[in-house]
Design goal:
The protein has two helices and three strands. It has 118 residues and is α/β, with parallel strands linked by helices. The chain has one domain.
Length: 118
């Protein structure tokens, strides 16, 4: 009886080890976080009115989404987000330096971000 118990214990340990190896080496492409998608509809350079509320717009309810506002909103939300960016020229006109919130100057991207140009 003792040897049967040891065989079962060893078989269980081997099965667990195989399962763990499979879990570690299997690509995680099927489990992907669903982020938000923002579509830029203005070439103006304006900030997001409320970063983190899930809506990229320059004033409450105006529906105007600039590239800067979309980046600020994506930075404020956890996980990978997508920005749909129509082909156009986007001139950055808000001067500033030494901040990392994309509110002035350059556009700081601080989180995973995908962009689609169309």
């Amino acid at each position: 009886m003792k040897s049967v118990g040891k065989v079962i214990l060893v078989a269980t340990a081997v099965a667990m080890a195989i399962t763990m190896c499979f879990a570690i080496t299997t690509p995680d492409s099927t489990v992907k976080a669903q982020g938000s998608t923002f579509t830029v509809n203005s070439t103006d350079d304006a900030t997001d009115v409320n970063p983190g509320d899930g809506v990229a717009e320059t004033a409450p309810g105006n529906g105007i989404c600039t590239l800067r506002a979309a980046i600020q909103e994506a930075n404020a939300l956890a996980g990978p987000d997508t920005i749909n960016l129509p082909a156009n020229t986007y001139t950055l006109s808000i001067a500033g330096a030494n901040e990392d919130a994309a509110a002035t100057g350059d556009l700081d991207i601080t989180d995973d971000l995908y962009h689609h140009r169309h």
